[in-house]
Amino acid sequence: MVKIISVLSVFLKYLNKQLYKFILFLDSRIISSTNDTKSSGTYYEPFRKFSVDGEPILQKIEQLNYNDLLNEYYLKHNKLLKPVSRRKPAQLNYKGNCPLCGAPHGYIYENNVKSQQLLCKVCNHTFTLNKDFLEKIILRCPHCSKKLERIKDRSGYIIYKCKHKKCSFYLNKLNKLTSDELKQYKKHPWKFKLHYIYRAYDINFDLLDRDSMADLNMKVDLANIRHSKHTLGLILTYYVNYGLSSRKTAAIMHDIHQVKISHQPIMNYANSVSAMVLPLLENYPYDLSSDLCGDETYIRVKGKKHYIFFFSDKIKKIITSYQVFSKRDTFLRLFLCIKPLRKKYAKLPEKLKVIVDGNPIYNAAWAYFKSIKINFDLFQVVGLTNNTKTDKDYRPFKQVQNA
Questions:
Q1: From 17, 74, 273, 346, which residue has the greatest number of CB atoms within 10 Å?
Q2: How far apart (Å, rounded) are the C-alpha atoms in residues 230 and 262?
Q3: Could you read off the pLDDT of 284-300 as tens digits, one per residue?
Q4: Strands 291-301 and 117-120: what pairing?
């Protein structure tokens, strides 16, 4: 038996050597040949950087009466405005009236079938079927005053775009392109941002004002537990402060303190204590300064990645807002920015400073706050080295928060 094992060991070593030689052959003949091509090596294609444009022009829409408009047309042209003469059946399934003036369906054109856009012949107002077309405000480009088109609906915001080819914003961007970039733009226009874009955020403030853990009910009544308050403090120290699992906490309580308890009561105790402590933390009248720092990190919850977003007062060392989310998007950052501004401050400081990292999505949040008359100064600390004066002046803010 020993001889058989020794023979098999030698044979396996031989196979291992042959396999290694075969891998070297493939590396020299096949893989290396691909590296000789022009496209070999690490390929880097620069992505289109996120940018935030200025605020649009807001034009309020006043409800019109199509009968008055028809009378004005008759007095001006001395003839009646005829309905649309359709040469073929309508492709868009819309039988309603104009949302602006109330003109009947007979006066409505199919202005653009591809984008499902309709045009009222009486008031010359355009609207679309696949969007919420009854809007009280029209957004116009601040550079050419043309109406912005609603192109995409995202989670928490709507994207509007100016598609006017003679817009000064578009022409200036186009003229700054090099010859190579211009060729790339003609082939792949989606890689460049030349048109004016505005993001209108749709935030439910009732959701923000609602307690973040209002649905968290107490698993047990802490006044009626059979363990003492000292034992409860030990359990919370191990389970919360030291971050041990409920089973390890139960083992330590038994091995060190001779307290026999299972892991489920430990989880119930922590749940009940958190439900009691949260209102005290959220509603306590903190005396906050005018300097807030924001950051984010991730944790694993039941094996899945979740994100923790939090803001803190750099001077008072107080965490003003915190929340765990399963995904990472713009709405979450807005949520965490709004929460301390709306709930923690009785009155906003005159010179409020918000220090965050270099993610440009915070610029979008800053633009949104400006639109709802909440003004503050945004400072972004980029990278690990002090390349700008802002990095040098406000990096200690971020370091205190991370500590």
A1: 273
A2: 17
A3: 888 888 888 888 788 88
A4: unpaired
CB-based burial label for 146 (10 Å; 0-12, 13-18, 19+)? middle
Distance, in Å, from the CA atom of 223 to the CA atom of 20, rounded to the nearest integer, reads 69
Sheet holding 197-201, edge to edge: 149-154, 157-161, 197-201
* pTM, entire model: 0.57
pLDDT tens readout for residues 204-233: 655 555 545 455 677 788 888 888 999 999
Q: DSSP string of 111-147?
A: EETTTTEEEETTT--EEESSS----SEEEE-TTT-PB
Distance CA 148, CA 150 (A): 7
How wide is the angle at C-alpha 303 spanned by C-alphas 300 and 307, nearest 5°? 30
How many beta carbons lie within 10 A of that of residue 294, not counting itself? 24
Encoded tokens for 254 = 């038994």
Identify the CATH class of 291-402.
alpha beta
- Could you tell me the CA-to-CA distances from 110 to 65, 87, 89, 115, 372 in Å, in that order? 21, 12, 11, 10, 36
CA dist., res. 52 & res. 56, Å (int): 12
Residue type, 318: I
Look-up: residue for tokens 């083992």?
251
